[in-house]
Amino acid sequence: MTDPLALFELTADQHRAATETERDVLMTAGAGTGKTRTLVARYVYLLSTGKTERQIAAITFTEKAAREMRNRIRQAVSDLAAASRGDEQSRWLEIESRMDAARIGTIHSLAAEILRAHPAEAKLDPGFLVVDEGLGLTFKARAVADGLAWAAGDPEAAQLFLAFTTNQLSTVLSRLLAERLEAEVLLGAETGLKLWNMVRALIEDFLQLQPIADGIQTLHDLARNDELEADAGPALGPRVELLLELWNDLEGTLAADDLLGACGVLFRIRREGLQKVGGSKKSRARAVVHEMQDLYDDHLNLWIGGAKSKDAPPSAEADAAWDQQRPRLKVLFDQALSAYRRALDTRRALDFDDLEAGALRLLETPEIGELWRARVHAVLVDEFQDTNERQRRIIEALVGDRPGALFAVGDARQSIYRFRGADVRVFRRKRQEVERSGGLAPEIELSFRAHAPLLAALDDFVGPLMDGDETTALHRVPYTALTADRRGPGASGAGPHLELVLGTGEGAERGRSAGARALANRLVELRREGVIRDWSEVALLFRASPGFEPYELALETAGIPFVTVAGRGFYARPEIRDVINTLRAIADPSDDLALAGFLRSPALGLSDSGLYLLRVDGSKKRPLRAALAEASRILEGEDLRAAARAQQVLEEMHLLADRLPVAELIGLLVDRLDWRAVMASSHSRLWRNLDKLVDDAQVSELVNVNAFLEYLGVLREVGAREGEAPAGEGGALQLMTIHKAKGLEFDLVVLADASRSSPQRSQSVYLMDEIGAAAAMDRVEDKPLVYRLARALDAKQSQAEEDRLLYVAATRARERLIISGHLSESRGSYKANGWMK
Fold first, then answer.
1. Which terminal CB of the chain, N or C, has fewer other CB atoms within 10 Å?
2. Rounded to whole angstroms, what are the CA distances from 276 to 239, 304, 312?
């Protein structure tokens, strides 16, 4: 009999995990350690023990990952069939023939299957559609507008506008709809007890820090022994006396359970008592005050404040204002949610939240849960670090109380999708549960990707950052070193395997451009030296897409072929913007800005002077569309021909608009204006991007041009990311965000624009199980305490994810990693930001 796992070449730890069926398995597998290979081996092993493809649910979280998993499992089954003989071969061939029916896909595809299997219980039409992200965002944007219009006319809801500006309320409502399942629970929940329990716990944690307790005792001793004035001096001594008085007040407010009062006293302690002024270097009081100030700033300042002069103390009035406005916000949210639901119902559609909530509700019904556990004997989960709490409950409902039914793989260090709802704490809690219950929770550390010298460099580069403070907090994932299967580099040769390439310039913008040019020059050198054999071996990874432009310009100047794979900038590409301007001009003849963009596009090439002559009539400005009709009187030569062609195309397309699907209309425009011929001398990515725009229009299924333009506007503003069309052939260096690079690997990885600071933007509203809902109110002078605390918790979790983002980027490299950044020059000194700081 053929050993089904022989073809996978598993390590001993991987083999043990793949074949363990008596205990749950949650395997932590670092970058390049073969976690998906182990999951595929587990799937094949279960098939070899007699499980059928319908009795195994293999789950991941993106369509791309699901396709890869399905293809790898199918290939493994095919390889086993080819390696077997006789009855065994027949069995594997039979399994291969049934693989189309296998439950291998995203958690949302499984949820949809569960809902369609129980339409009566779910109260759904089994033929429901799943709305795509872009259209869902459009529906939500309209629901927000409908909700605000309703609020303006409702006397009670209109009170919201006394606390929120219209723009802010729109942002809050959009955020609530984006997290609508959480908002439904938390906006109406009474969470005050949770809040105050956390406030007390955080204050007590601070007070129980040994340096705080010892420091206060030292100050008391100095005062009691009449040594304070001599030790602290005239500047610091009075502040220490005030500090001790305030400390007594703090103990009193805590004893009286006046937690808001305690926060106010702590604010004064920081503002008035913990100041680094006076005292000699030998002063004991000075040392205590300095250490207490640092600890306060680390533990309390983010939410209580006091360190900065502009900080405001916690305010009972702000808390009262939020208590008044929260019920009104809940009513407004319900109105907007109803509008969104109506839009979905019109299309008989569900979104991903509906799929998750509906499937969970069914699986937690005893009869249906038992039915699905009888159908699904084993649950395999890839990328488990990308789950949220609701998805965890779905998985656990499928597994039930059956040790050995769960096999999950993931890596908390690679959890970088918090903006999509992923919560790294879910993975870490589940790992603790598996360990406590006697399950298997191995950590696979042997990497088959990077060689030993590169991994050693990464230990020094990434390790100290991830192993900072709070490594015991669930959101803070400690660094774990990987071991290399390869002892040395491949054909790329000798080091350095970790390299720093910097540029300098006055200010961030010039510095960034200089850094990009320095990198392009270095890449040309590496190509000339033979280190880079093909440009497709190289990837530039960015924290965010706004960093692309200076690097694209530098690469283009250096003659390096490239393709930008991902980023929200797709719809801002010049070739795409030209088409969108044309659509706007067709839809709205009075849109002079769009018409000017169309006329100046390469397809027409109207000169600046020609545009000026059309627009300006003496001292007056005239509408461009009207001017086009009189172009023969205003223009001449090439400009006249361009204007005449524009007028003809606009008239033709205006007749077809809203009669043809937008995708067909764009196709006609491209042909009518010979756009491909215009771009023939440009890089091939330009016409690939046009094809992608047509594909996007087809996906939207929209006919109305204005509806399609609204759809694109929502994609840009709300945050759905679109990438350029991928390269049709090899030989091009790739630029992409780190998120887009997840799961990929390259010989040479550049951590590009590493000096860019991560934007520390506060959210308009927070929804946290720990403390409830919290919103800032622009028209209320201060922020409620619950908002301050939510903002602080979010900032810590965001910073921890920033560190994990760096880990993911650095571990994409097989042979070499280059850190590309810049130093900003100002008044003779240089400053670094971001990961370069």
1. N
2. 10, 19, 20
